[in-house]
Amino acid sequence: MQLGFGDQPFDMSIEQLGKMARKFAPKVMLHHSETNMPCSVEWYLPQCSLYYTTEKQFFDPASSHKILNSCGDQRELISQSVTEGDIIHRTSGTRGNAHFFLRHHSDSVQTGQSAEDVKANKVPVYFTALHNPQRGFIDLQYHFFYSYNGSIFKMISTAGIHEADWENIAIRVSDKTYNIIG
């Protein structure tokens, strides 16, 4: 079977790719005082609403329009003034300065799934593989989703704060020998 990764065909079965992903999977250790745990996207989305705005302060729900009451399985369209065409045009950049963002319903969502869920491997690690045959490597990317990222500086308490954060680890392997090269 040939799989497409990027623009190039990738001659490897799903089973072989899964085996490679498990072989090189990093062991992630979180600090004992970490308060924001990873979570699954499936856990996070039902606890959020989708907003859009054209304001510069796009992170402020007060100056925004709620589109979906919940982003989980039970989707409820709130704003009848926003059509599917509006969303397509706004996201493609052809209709000005529109921004879409998620806002969770409760601050309790910020901590992510429980530490027990993380330890019991109930929180997924998302995986992608990117093949660059011209340069002879495959990038194995392991993605972790966090519902919230707290401040990154002690002196500036609001620096780096944002919701819905993706972190990742990449391992580069040779597409000939399947050994780590970076």
Q: What multimeric state do the chains show? A: single chain
Low-pLDDT residue spans:
1-5, 72-81, 89-95
Gross geometry? elongated
Share of β-strand residues: 25-35%
Radius of gyration: 20 Å
- Structural class by helix and strand composition: alpha+beta
The helicity comes to 10-25%
Number of helices: 4
Pattern of helices and strands: EEHHEEHEHEEE
Q: Could you give the distance between the termini?
A: 27 Å
What's the main sheet like? 3 strands, antiparallel
Rounded average pLDDT = 75
Any chance you could write out the topology, listing elements then pairs?
Elements: E1 3-5, E2 8-10, H1 14-24, H2 41-44, E3 48-53, E4 65-68, H3 84-92, E5 99-104, H4 115-119, E6 126-132, E7 137-149, E8 162-174
Antiparallel strand pairs: 1-2, 3-4, 3-5, 6-7, 7-8
